[in-house]
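Lesson 9: reading folded outputs for more than one chain in a single document. The general rule is that every protein is listed as its sequence immediately followed by its structure tokens, and records are never interleaved. Here is the first one.
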Amino acid sequence: MGKIMHSSHNDTTDNHQEPATESHAPDEPETSGSEGNVQASRERDPVRRITWIVLSVCAALFVWHLVSDRFTPSTDQARVRGFVVPIAPKVSGTIKQIKVDINQLVKKDDVLFKIDPLDYEIAVQAAQAALDTTGQQIGVETASIQSAAANVGDNNAQLTKAQRDLDRLQRVAKIDPGAVSKVSLDNAQAAVEQAKSRLEGAEADLEKARQQLGRGGKNNPKIRAALSALEKARLDLARTTIYAPADGYVTNLQVDIGHYAKAGQPLVTFLSDTEVWIQADMRENSIGNIKEGNPVDILLDIAPGRIFKGQVLSIGFGVDKGQGGYLGSLPTIKGTGGWLRDAQRFPIIIKFTDDKAQGLRLLGGQADVMVYTGNNFILNPFGWLWIRFLSILSYVY
């Protein structure tokens, strides 16, 4: 009975302890599985993965920016530049015709304005008449010279005759002193002196006539002055028609027919379409490798999605931080302030090497440029892609 009870007790104890053993055994696998789940969860965390991707891309872009800024420098601070010519008449008068409209494309030597030519036609006629009158005066003066020369010859002949008469009387008086009276000798001597005086006067008149006439033919001063006056009158008449100096555009047209144009005062502004360039203001620390002749990709804001070809023409050697901009001063480039000092910018002049941009090169228009400083087989393709990526973005910004 006791054995039975003891056995029952052991069985009960065993039955009681087995669940305890079984309850601890599964704890270890459960803990190991939990850590694995956490690690797998971390590996599958999209935020963590995206963060690492973004940081990697940013680091790569930063490194690319540092390197590319030296070998494929670019800037968005670029503008289209060109010659701006105020068209002003060289003569004054009332505008009779206007042959151009505002913002019109014109070709070289196209007529822009016509000033009433009547006053200048009359001036040409007057100058022609003055030239004819001068010619007549020259003819009179030439005749005067001929007359004076003849008078000199006549007086010279009279002097010769008087001198011979005096010589003859002196010879006779020397042979026979009583044959010739002293009065006759005195009269002969006086005749010689009078002839000399008249000859000197005739020669002076001849020189005076020659001085009044000057050089002969077209080299005559009076003829040259009259011809110059006629040429000036004809030139003023020609200047009543105002032509376009080159291919380009006219703008700022603010006059109409009947306006009195004054010489030297602009009537319209002309923008050249042939002499156009890009001024790209680049940071000082990115122009070290730029050389004249480097190829350039140009993106104009007016033509999104299109890339135009260019070439570095020159590099600025100085800038003015003051109030420059007047003729004879250095170009002025204003810097931007901030808690970090902005690098100084220098102007890089870029010319267009194709005609695809003609008609799109608006003076003052903004542009992006990418300069390729060498045969960098890694950086150049990235620069090529970047400027074209910007060309797509230019549709929306």
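And here is the second record, again sequence then tokens.
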Amino acid sequence: MTVGPIAGLVLAAGESRRMGQDKALLEYQGRPFLEVILGNLREAGISRVVVVLGHNADRISKAVRVGDAEVVINLDYRLGQTSSLQAGLRALDLAEVSGVVLCLVDHPAASVAVMRELQNAFRQTVATVVIPVHQQRRGHPVLISQMLFKELLALDPAQGANTVIHKYRSATYLMEVDDAGVLLDIDEPGDYQNLRQRV
């Protein structure tokens, strides 16, 4: 089976309540989180990228160099992450995309190598979902096949994407990686301090 283009989708619409400031603008490796993720996607060979903004969208879009990424504003971001995922999927030409590397803005530490490995694993296995695993723990980003797009778009915003993903456990490929960065979820100030110490 021939696998077509793989797109990138970055969700950065949340209110960052626990952090107390916009996570998209927190600095990692000398750049805002969002800029780091976009740069890694490009370096991993992903040319079509959609970024979903919501809370403080204007401020973030002015502060971050998004390059040729398409910015989508989710006015319903308060409904939760699923609403942002759906907004991003709608912006893509779904008929021409075989899958998306789904990145969350609070996971900035996943390397370019991991993003490349996700694509390679998807092309080789044609799995419905590819999830990076480090020391038996699942991380991010994940690669989702276009086979799931219709079901994801049909979800009620109150339902998480895992509602769909769990249905396809038997068709999910768990990809072992050496990069502990896939596990780093920056939700609170303490998480951010740990990330800065890691750098």
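What the second record shows: The chain has a mean pLDDT of 94.
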